[in-house]
Amino acid sequence: MIRRPLRPLAPVLSARDRGENPDAVERSHRREREEARRDGARVRAEGRLLMLGLLFVIAFGAIGARMAAIATAEAAEPRTADAGAAILGSRADIVDRNGRILATNLPTQALYAQPHRMVDGPRAARALAAVIPELDAPMLLREFTDPGRRFVWLRRRLSPEQVQAVHDIGEPGLQFGPREMRLYPNGPEAAHVLGGVAFGREGVSAAEIVGTAGLERALDGRLGDPAQGAVPVVLSLDLGVQAAVREVLGAGMRLMNAAGASAVLMDAVTGEVVALVSLPDFDPNVRPAPAVAGDPALSPLFNRAVLGVYELGSVMKPFAIAQALDLGLVTPATRINTRGPLTWGRYRIRDFRNYGPELSVTDVIVKSSNIGTARIAVQIGGERQQAFLRALGLLDPLPLELAEGALARPLLPRQWSEIATMTIAYGHGLSISPLHLAAGYAALVNGGTRVTPTLLRRDTPERGARVVSEATSAAIRAMLRATVTRGTASLAEVAGYPVGGKTGTADKPRPRGGYYEDRVIATFAAVFPAHAPRYVLVVTLDEPVETSGPEPRRTAGWTAVPVAAEVIRRTAPLLGLRPEIEPAAADALIRVRN
What we know:
The protein has helices spanning 9-17, 22-72, 121-131, 137-144, 160-169, 191-194, 214-218, 220-223, 239-255, 317-327, 361-366, 370-380, 382-391, 418-425, 434-445, 470-486, 560-571; strands at residues 94-95, 101-113, 152-158, 174-183, 196-202, 207-213, 233-234, 260-267, 273-279, 335-337, 342-344, 347-349, 358-360, 500-509, 515-528, 535-542. By secondary structure, it is an alpha+beta fold.
């Protein structure tokens, strides 16, 4: 392209020869160039507008064609899965430590209807409501006779008997889709451990099973992994022991008129939870919906053993005594001033009875002296007390294989003052779960090493950090045994099985502050066999009242202790512990359970 100059030489020279003005030639050339530029711009703009209009026509045409195709096509069944993504309904089994099934999958059928294919919709509605009473016949009739309905979900799972009954209706518009359903063959046994499942991604021919609570949710990835589907998850629970604990605890809860109860039975060396029960409970096969109003702690879904955090009372005293022994501040024979009441500012600390001017450290535990424990706690100091309880794992959530485990946060005082140090030492001002308590006692009596609770079977012990010396552990074992032989837990004696333990009775707090005068949380923390503990048992009763005497009795010695004794009597043989015929020798009890 040759650019034309604004003042072309030849026309300018020619204009000069003719006596004309050369500037007129320049203006003429400028005008011609501007007109050519405008013409080119107009042509380009018209081309762009034409292209844009063509694109709009194509886009709206495609959308209209798709809408027409959808409107005239037959309705497809609903699918929540991504296109092309396979829905896997398989899930690994859950078994107890001996291989007994706790949770498994069972093939079943889902039921749906295609009303446009029905021969007799009204008859099908009546017959189906008779087979499945949960379905509403009038609603089915409306759906089956609605000309606009082409697909209706009826049931996500059916029993074999219901499948056959629907087949017998003989209606071609009633169709089945294959399903895998989660089955808990033992019903409510270990319900709070297992939790429950629900259907996730779902199509007509398959549905994904996902965990919604408990261990099913915590181990959802492992249980739903197709590569590990043939390998069951082995728990530390013993189904026989679990059933015995639940039966005895339920009977004790009714006998003691309690609003709720929990029990934790733990291996003191490995940390394996052999039984975990929370009452009231539920059947995970028909898991109830969560409560939308009221106190969630009253729901059968609430796991009192793990989620419930309580001021547990005097069962906390062995921790203070153990720390004082380990620090060398006292010995089991050291005399402690127990004159009362113990005054701190406006607070008065009293004992349940007048135990005289002084008690030995051992008798502070045996007789359960608040004053004696508080004086020992002052010697320890708040900073050291807090560090010791944290080392035991009592101030943090426990890493248990339950979805709810991380929610079980102990309630600590806002300020760890001296009065808080004193009250925490005897079980007030700090709220922990029964599972926390069981893990703490296991560390005190197993030789002094920290224990991490687990619901999975451990073939080899996992020794934790040392929290107290072996000498301190032996001294605490002797004190717990003395509490049963001559102290507040005398009803815990079980023939053939020496038991040690500590009682705790704590006033129950009101929701808006203060404490009830006639409601308590009664707890008994037991260890057995007492001279070489293999197991820790924590039994907690919510608002128990023992009414066999002339006046109602609420203390743990009358309520939680006899229930725990019966649990030990029933479960010790199941755990492989031989009863002692003669006074205990070092190896008198032999553990034969795998």
